[in-house]
Structure formats: structure tokens, C-alpha cells
RNA sequence: GCCCCCGUAGCUCAGUGGAUAGAGCGCCGGCCUCCGGAGCCGGGUGCGCGCGUUCGAAUCGCGCCGGGGGUACCA
């Protein structure tokens, strides 16, 4: 089988990009937004009546509780107390007294030191189920992004060896973020920066060549700091098998650049296979070599120099990031004349903003790159102050520890030994791999429990959630013959509570997107699955009561839709049966 | 030394400055002739320490202690 050919994107060539259909047609149902608007109206009315003193416009905070105290609660009156100079309790009461009526609210009251507590109307909640089903796969999304062009760059591991488990975490997070941004109305480009040039690639080429020559019976030196993994000789054997002796030179490849490209091609092929199996796709594979060939690095060096951010010292060219802070001074061009990773990365990011005009760029980096963050921001600021007014976001994912049989192994190339993504994937499969990476906040170091992740039973949260979805589908298969029935249906609090849980989904998605925290979706889904399983165990959906059966089937369809949408955001399959 | 991340239940981790801090796993006990199976219910211990800001701190600030990472003319 031929190795997969990758076409590396060169930005000077126009490229067709898939335009995604808008995620949602109408305004998204978001309970807290409605309540916030009501409260603002109530405050204005209270002020007009002279019950509350003047304030600037207030954006009322709403907390979703869904407990004995309230469905939603606002503590804004406590904060207003200082501005208005009145007791919070009295402010809250004045606002509530002036609140306009709304079908979404069944009850409002003040409580404690000045909380305003809301209860959502049961009939209104059940009425929203039709809206969920109407929105279908788009439910939960929004138009918040308004088509703004955002690039998410992730993984971008050097093609000099297999992906580590840690790279998998970054990949899954970047992919989920891209899905979230897409759902929230952004125009998303997913990009992998291919480090196919420079010193590390040279060393890779020589490392592979050493084995390649040996396979063909000739000796070639192994480079200092060469790559020592078993894969190096595997790649060499593959090249010898496919290409024969055409690369043989005298101790070095006959064409070093082309041989390096050959090795990179194999490395990238393996990386892409891993990512494919994890369900991670990219719109753009950006070639560093192509960018260098266009002279982008020289251009950016000139631009920096022209603005006085460059100084020569000890034969090297340095970036002087203003104010003379030490951590803002780094080498751009080595004394031997070649640019550093830093210089090339500045050129790359300039390309993102200036050449390709992304309004926002999100980089997902591994923890080992975090020292690079401040100087990257400094460089962007130097090039164009407006370019870094929050337009470049760098998310740093923390380390991954792999736990097997209770034993913990840490990742790290320095240790020489690390668990590959492929090993994790083969062990637990893509669904569990994605789930566990997406169940922790990105800045928290995590331990991946392989023993739990590979279980295919409900003790494993990912199967528990998928099972909830399959169960919804199963109920509908059972009820396939049941026709629609009108008439009043008697429902329970559990029906309404489950439905209300569904209406929280758009709020969770919006928060996850805004905060770049996909794990919020993961936790929501686990909670929803638990509520659903509990409901299922307690209540029968399909019964002789035709009216109630119809209502409950609608509820179950909506549950299934939300589970499917949530799993979709995480890139995890939502099976019809298990 | 300096910089970054983290410290919450036995373990793995959630927790927009708000009311009584949660889930999963593990452990113990009970239920389940049920649309879909491996499902459900119950049981308990915790915010590393101190000071500060605030009406209110797991959350914000400072200082310690502990863990991890970074600190190259590597990437």
C-alpha cells in the first residue's frame, strides 16, 4: 500500500474552503438571557417609580441552580446595594415588584440577604420541547460568532516521530474547540503547522539515513542527538523497500533535502493516521518549508528591524521587545546564519494575521512550549499592536500521566520513554480517548486511567452517556407504531425536570465556547445521562395513556437530540444501539 | 534562582465572588419477571497553611509548604 500523500498548503495559492451552513436559524432559547432582560426591565421600572436610586445600565447575572432554592437565581441586588446605597433586600423587592409578567416565569421571590429567585413555568418548559426538535442538530448552537473568521491551530507536532499521548490531548481539545466555535457561529479554520524544515528535520534525515544505509549494507554515521526510537529503523526499511538504493550517497543521502522530505512524508502519514482514527481533521496542513521558500522569514525580520526591535550581538540577531525586559530578548538568527524557531514562528503568525486576515487565532500548545508564550505575544505586539489586542490566544494544555494497573508513567521526551497516542488508542478506542481528554480542564495536569477507560460497561462514563442515547433510540423503536395523540396529559415533576435540563444545554455550549472549556460539555452530558437513566428507571414512557405517551415520546426524542448534539461537539459517536 | 500550571472525598477530577462545595471510580447495603441489556436507590470523609480584599472567598491578592513543567544561538 502506498504511503498517503499529503498536500501541504501554501497560502499564496488560493484555496477553496468549505462554508458551513449557519448553525442555528433563529434566536437560541436561553432562559438566563430572558430572565436577565426581565430583571433589567424591572430595575428600570423600579427606578421610574422612585423605589431604587439611579444606576448605570446593569447586566444582571443569573446562576442556574435547579435545586430547592431556585431554578435560576440572581445576586445582582447584593452588588447594587453599594451603588444605590440601599439595603440589597429592599432593592431586590423593588425590582421584583416591578417585574413584567412573562410566560417563562411561574414564580419569583426574594430570599436571604437579597437574592432574586426564579422558578420556570412547567407548561412553558414542556412547550420548548417542540423548539428543540425543530432546531434539531442545531439546538444548542448560536450565531454569537457572526461568521467571524477564527483559526484554531493544534497538534502541530514535529513529524520526527509518533504522536505522544499528550499530543493527543492537545489534538482532541483543539478539535472540540473548533467544533464549539463552529456551533457558535464562527467561521473556523483548523490548521496543523508542519515543521518540515530546519535543524530537527536534518537530524531526522541523518538518523533515518544511518539505518537506511545499513539496510543496504553501507555504513553511515549516526548524528549527534539523533532520533533513537525503533520507528527510525522502521521508516528506513520502508524507504529501502519502496525506493531501493536510489538515496545511497557516500555516508550521506544523495539528495539530503529530498531524503528528509521522504522521511517527513512517512512521519506525517503516521501522524495523520493516528489523528484520523481519533476523528481529528484539519482544513490546512501548513508547510513551514513552503513558507520559508516564499521568503516570509526574511520579510518579518526586515519588518521587525524597520521598527527598531532588532539588535545584533555576539554575531547573532536578537529580538529586543521594548522596555529591555530580559524575557523579551531572544535570538532570531543564530550566529551561524540560520533563523531560530522563534523567528520562523513570528513569520508564521504574521502570515495568519496579515496574509490570511484571520480576525482571531487560537493556538493550542503543549506544556513544554509555555515558555514561548510571552515572547510570542511580545513579538506580535511589536509587529502590530492591534494584532495582539486579544486576537492571539494561546492555550497551554498540561501534561498527561498514563495510569495502568494503578501504575503511573509520566510523559516527557526527556525521559526518553513515553506512551504514544497509538498505544492509548489501541487500548481504549477513540470514544474513550476523546472523552477522558475532554473531561478535565485543559490547565489541569491529568492522569489517564486506562483501566477505567477501556471498560465497556456503564462504570465507564463514556459508555454510560452513549447508553443513554441508545436507550432513547430504543424506546422510539419500541413505540414506532404509537400514533400521535392529542388531549391533556398528566405529567410528573420528573418529566419537567428532565426537560428543564435540556434547556440548559445552549447555556453550557455558550459558556464552553466563550471560555474555551470543552470539558463543560462533557460534564453536562454525564449529568444529563444520569438524570435520564434515573427517569427511565422510574417512569414508563410507552403506556396505555396515549396522550401521555405522546408527550413523553417527544421528551425522549428531545433528550436523544441533546445527547447527540453534545456528543457531536465532543466528536464522540452517538450509537442507536449498543 | 526566576517564570508558568496545579493542590478540593480513599483515587481521578468538576465547581461565572454568593445561600447547604459536587460527579465518576472504589467500598458497603438494598431494589430491578423493566420500553433496552451492563439499570436504579441509599450510605461519608474534603477546599494544603497563614494573612489580606469583600456584605460574602474553594474562587481574587500577598507570603509560605507540596507536586509538575519551563528557563538553549533546541523545537
Which strand order does the major sheet show?
Answer: 7-6-5-11-12
Which bin fits the share of residues in helices?
40-55%
Helix/strand structural class: alpha/beta
Unreliable segments (pLDDT under 50, ≥5 consecutive)? 1-27, 410-416
CATH class of the domain at 125-144 and 464-570: Mainly Alpha
Indicate the CATH topology of the domain at 125-144 and 464-570.
Answer: Isoleucyl-tRNA Synthetase, Domain 1
Q: How many strand elements?
A: 15
Strand portion: 5-15%
The rounded distance between the terminal residues' Cα atoms is: 33 Å
Please state the second-level CATH architecture of the domain at 125-144 and 464-570.
Orthogonal Bundle
- The CATH homologous superfamily of the domain at 125-144 and 464-570: Isoleucyl-tRNA Synthetase, Domain 1
**What does the average pLDDT come to?**
87
Number of helices: 19
Cα gyration radius (Å): 29 Å
Biggest beta sheet attributes: 5 strands, parallel
Shape: flat
Task: Give an overview in words.
By secondary structure, the protein is of the alpha/beta class. Among the domains are: 31-120, 2-Layer Sandwich (Gyrase A, domain 2); 125-144 and 464-570, Isoleucyl-tRNA Synthetase, Domain 1 (Orthogonal Bundle), CATH 1.10.730.10; 199-277, no CATH class. The chain has 19 helices and 15 strands. It has helices spanning 31-48, 76-84, 88-97, 122-135, 165-183, 199-215, 230-243, 256-277, 288-293, 296-306, 341-355, 373-383, 421-437, 450-453, 461-478, 493-503, 505-514, 519-538, 546-570; strands spanning 63-64, 72-74, 105-111, 115-120, 149-153, 187-194, 284-287, 310-313, 316-320, 329-333, 360-366, 392-397, 400-404, 407-410, 446-449. Strands 7-6-5-11-12 form a five-stranded parallel β-sheet, with helices on both faces. It has a four-stranded antiparallel β-sheet with strand order 1-2-4-3. Helix 6 packs across helix 8 (256-277). The chain is flat and about 85 Å long. The two termini are 33 Å apart. Mean pLDDT is 87; it is low at 1-27 and 410-416. The structure holds one RNA strand of 75 nucleotides.
Amino acid at each position: 500500500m502506498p504511503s498517503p500523500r499529503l498536500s501541504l498548503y501554501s497560502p499564496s495559492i488560493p484555496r477553496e474552503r468549505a462554508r458551513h451552513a449557519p448553525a442555528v436559524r433563529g434566536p437560541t432559547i436561553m432562559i438566563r438571557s430572558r430572565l436577565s432582560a426581565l430583571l433589567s426591565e424591572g430595575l428600570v421600572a423600579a427606578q421610574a417609580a422612585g423605589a431604587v436610586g439611579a444606576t448605570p445600565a446593569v447586566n444582571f447575572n443569573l446562576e442556574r441552580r435547579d435545586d430547592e432554592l431556585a431554578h435560576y437565581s440572581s445576586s445582582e441586588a447584593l452588588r447594587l446595594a453599594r451603588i444605590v446605597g440601599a439595603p440589597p433586600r429592599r432593592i431586590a423587592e423593588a425590582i421584583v415588584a416591578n417585574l413584567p409578567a412573562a410566560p417563562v416565569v411561574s414564580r419569583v421571590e426574594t430570599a436571604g440577604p437579597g437574592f432574586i429567585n426564579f422558578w420556570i413555568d412547567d407548561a412553558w418548559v414542556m412547550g420548548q420541547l417542540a423548539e428543540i426538535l425543530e432546531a434539531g442538530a442545531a439546538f444548542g448552537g448560536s450565531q454569537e460568532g457572526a461568521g467571524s473568521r477564527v483559526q484554531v491551530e493544534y497538534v502541530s507536532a514535529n513529524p520526527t516521530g509518533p504522536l505522544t499521548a499528550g499530543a493527543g490531548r492537545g489534538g482532541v481539545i483543539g478539535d472540540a474547540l473548533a467544533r464549539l466555535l463552529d456551533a457558535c457561529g464562527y467561521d473556523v479554520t483548523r490548521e496543523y503547522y508542519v515543521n518540515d524544515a530546519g535543524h530537527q528535520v536534518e537530524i531526522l534525515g541523518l538518523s533515518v539515513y544511518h539505518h537506511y544505509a545499513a539496510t543496504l549494507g553501507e555504513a553511515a554515521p549516526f548524528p549527534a542527538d539523533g532520533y533513537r526510537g525503533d520507528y527510525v529503523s522502521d521508516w528506513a526499511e520502508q524507504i529501502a523497500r519502496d525506493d531501493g538504493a536510489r538515496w545511497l550517497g557516500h555516508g550521506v543521502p544523495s539528495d539530503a533535502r529530498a531524503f528528509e522530505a521522504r522521511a517527513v512524508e512517512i512521519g506525517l502519514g503516521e501522524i495523520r493516521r493516528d489523528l484520523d482514527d481519533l476523528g481529528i481533521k484539519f482544513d490546512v496542513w501548513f508547510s513551514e518549508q513552503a513558507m520559508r521558500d516564499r521568503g516570509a522569514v526574511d520579510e518579518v525580520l526586515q519588518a521587525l528591524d524597520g521598527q527598531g526591535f532588532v539588535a545584533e550581538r555576539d554575531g547573532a540577531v536578537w529580538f529586543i521587545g521594548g522596555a529591555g525586559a530580559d524575557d523579551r530578548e531572544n535570538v532570531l538568527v543564530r550566529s551561524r546564519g540560520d533563523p531560530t524557531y522563534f523567528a520562523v514562528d513570528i513569520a508564521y503568525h504574521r502570515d495568519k494575521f496579515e496574509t490570511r486576515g484571520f480576525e482571531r487565532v487560537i493556538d493550542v500548545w503543549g506544556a513544554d512550549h509555555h515558555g514561548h508564550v510571552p515572547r510570542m505575544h511580545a513579538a506580535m505586539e511589536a509587529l502590530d499592536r492591534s494584532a495582539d489586542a486579544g486576537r492571539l490566544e494561546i492555550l497551554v494544555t498540561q501534561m498527561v500521566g498514563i495510569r495502568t494497573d494503578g501504575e503511573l508513567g509520566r510523559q516527557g521526551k526527556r525521559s526518553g520513554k513515553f506512551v504514544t497516542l497509538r498505544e492509548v488508542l489501541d487500548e481504549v478506542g477513540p470514544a474513550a480517548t476523546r472523552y477522558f481528554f475532554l473531561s478535565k480542564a485543559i490547565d489541569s495536569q491529568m492522569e489517564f486511567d486506562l483501566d477505567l477507560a477501556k471498560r465497556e460497561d456503564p462504570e465507564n462514563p463514556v459508555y454510560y452517556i452513549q447508553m443513554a442515547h441508545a436507550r432513547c433510540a430504543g424506546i422510539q423503536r419500541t413505540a414506532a407504531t404509537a400514533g400521535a395523540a392529542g388531549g391533556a396529559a398528566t405529567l410528573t415533576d420528573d418529566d419537567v425536570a428532565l426537560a428543564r435540563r435540556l434547556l440548559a444545554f445552549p447555556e453550557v455550549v455558550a459558556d464552553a465556547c466563550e471560555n474555551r472549556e470543552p470539558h463543560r460539555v462533557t460534564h453536562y452530558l454525564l449529568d444529563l445521562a444520569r438524570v435520564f437513566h434515573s427517569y427511565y428507571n422510574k417512569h414508563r414512557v410507552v403506556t396505555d395513556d396515549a396522550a401521555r405517551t405522546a408527550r413523553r415520546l417527544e421528551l425522549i426524542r428531545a433528550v436523544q437530540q441533546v445527547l447527540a448534539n453534545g456528543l457531536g461537539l465532543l466528536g464522540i459517536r452517538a450509537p442507536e444501539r449498543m
